[in-house]
Amino acid sequence: METTELELKEIVRKKYAEIARQDPSVNAASCCGSGPTSQEVYNIMTDDYTALKGYTAEADLGLGCGLPTQFAKIKKGDVVIDLGSGAGNDCFVARHETGPEGKVIGIDFTEEMIARARQNAEARGLHNVEFRQGDIEAMPVSDAVADVVVSNCVLNLVPNKRQVFAEIFRVLKPGGHFSISDIVLNGELPDNLRQAAKMYAGCVTGAIQKDEYLALAAAAGFENLTVQKQKAIFIPDDILLEYLPATEIAHFRNSGAVVESITLFADKTGGAQKPVFEMLNTVAVSAEGACCGPDGCC
Fold first, then answer.
1. pTM of the predicted protein model
2. pLDDT in tens, 123-133
3. Which domain holds residue 41?
């Protein structure tokens, strides 16, 4: 029986409530911080935040798959919204860029994450960083309030990604932009892994094809789509064995299917929507060397 959107959301909510209560070192050894713990001694998805100004170790739960705030072109005085703000790490990095004259709003639908993030902000006296509990498919934010939207490994957890992109477009000011790190696919996952609702909370099952992801952003009205960074993600065998027999793991390894982390940037310019194929044909190559478009990536 197929898992419904509401059931998937509840799986994610429960898992991230558990993560909010546990030690960050437990998260770092798992898939996107929330899958079954791997015995491999390395981090699967997260990038190193420690060199970024504003980094807060207590707020870093090891849940990300990129560094969107590094690429987000945040300026002094900006209003920034972070989707799926967790314990607040990206918000605190963003706040360093906005300065005290700006404002940062973190949105998360897990009560335990909101409580932890607020404690972190209050302990540092950051009065222009606010955390709101809510669903990013229906953000508790008015229209056209943000200069920048960031998010780190969160949209893959949301069943209705089309609605999230529509909401990002709604809350951005004309001329605003987003920078989002997320997990996408090139090629098909094995059926058992793709249908594993538990792995939805682990970021992999909820990922969609890269071309489809870009198409959703374009269809929402965004322009100047640019893949700022991308990297392949290796899922250790001890995680895959929870869902696949060893023979299927070998087949998956040889299939050419790739799980990737990408950081996508786009502008809300004139606001007029264009045909999806036209937008995809203009996806740009960033300085990081990414090259993505309707025919895939090189």
1. 0.80
2. 999 999 999 99
3. 5-290
